[in-house]
Amino acid sequence: MLPKFSNQKGMKLKLSLKQKTAVFGIVLGLSTSAFAAEYPKVIQTAVNQGVKVAKSFPAASGMTGWVLSREGQYSIVFTTPDSKTLVAGLMISESGANLSQEYAEKYIPKPDFAAVFKYLEKTTMIVEGAKAPKGILYAFFDPNCPFCHMTWKALQPYEAAGLQVRWVPVAYLAPSSLPKAIEMLASANPTSAFRANEQNFGKEKNPPAKYTASAYPEIAKKLEKNAELMQKFGFNGTPGIVWKDKSGKIMVKNGMPKLSELPAMTGLPEQKIDDPELARFR
C-alpha cells in the first residue's frame, strides 16, 4: 500500500511489516550499482533495483520530485539541489501546506477503479437499506470505527429515502474487531447483527470467545480479501466509500464525508439530519 496523503476524518489502516516493506522498499533497497547519466546516482541505484521512474518535477526549495513505481505502487521522493541526497517523507511549506499531498494528487497516476469495482460488486458485504434502491453506496467499515458509526448515522435518512448501502467489513482497529466482524457474518441475519452493533456502538460488548479465525477460517479469509480490496481502492483507513456518479464514473471518498456531500454521493435529495452528534460534519 502506498503512502496516502489525506486529512480526511477516518481511522487509519495499520500496515503490516510486509506492507510497509512494499511501500518503502523503493527507498530502502538502494545499492551501489553503476548508474546512468540521466538520473542522479541516488535515483539510479533505485532503478537498478527494479524501481521505475514515472516522472520528475520541480519541487519547492530547489528540490526535484520523483514519482517512482514498483509493482504498480507509486511513491514520491525528492533529491536535493546538488542531486547527492535523496529525501523521503512529508514536505511541509512554511505556511503549513502539505506539499507532498499536493504533489501526489498532481503527479501520481490515477488508479483504474473500474478494474477493481467488479470485484467489489461480488465481495462479502452486508446489505442495508432499500431493496429497490434509487442509489447505492459501498462502504468499507471496521466494527470498532467511530467514523464508520457516524457515517452509518448520517446515511439512515438517505436509506429511508431509497438508498442502499453495501457495508464491506474489514477488521484491523482493535483486538475485538475480528471477532465482531466474524460474529456479524456468521449470524443468520448479518444485517440485523450489523445494525445491533451500530445501535449499541460505544457500549462495551465483547463477542463470545468462539468467534475466532481458527473457528471460522472461511469468514476470516473473506475479511482478509476485503482488506486487500480496500487497499486497491487506495483507502488507508475506514470508512472508505465507493459509488458511481450520475455519469457512471466510479468515485471514492476516504473518511467521514461532510453532510453537504451526501446528496451528490447518494444521488438523492438532501435529507434532514438533526442528530447533534453529526453537527460537526456539516
Automatic annotation (TrEMBL):
InterPro entries reported in the protein's UniProt record: DiS-bond_Isoase_DsbC/G, DiS-bond_isomerase_DsbC/G_N_sf, Thiol:disulfide_interchange, Thioredoxin-like_fold, Thioredoxin-like_sf
Q: Which CDD domains match?
A: DsbA_DsbC_DsbG
Q: Which residues form the Thioredoxin-like fold domain?
A: 134-249
What are its GO cellular component terms? periplasmic space
Name the UniProt key words of this record, in alphabetical order: Periplasm, Redox-active center, Signal
* Signal peptide residues on this chain, from the entry's feature table: 1-36
Give the Basic and acidic residues compositional bias ranges: 271-282
Its localization reads: Periplasm
What the entry lists under Gene3D superfamilies is as follows: Disulphide bond isomerase, DsbC/G, N-terminal, Glutaredoxin
Q: Where is this region: Disordered?
A: 262-282
Q: Does the keyword Signal apply?
A: yes
The domain of life is Bacteria
User: Family, per the entry?
Assistant: Belongs to the thioredoxin family. DsbC subfamily.
User: What does the record give as the function of this protein?
Assistant: Required for disulfide bond formation in some periplasmic proteins. Acts by transferring its disulfide bond to other proteins and is reduced in the process.
- This chain's protein is named Thiol:disulfide interchange protein
What species is given as this protein's source?
Sulfuriferula multivorans
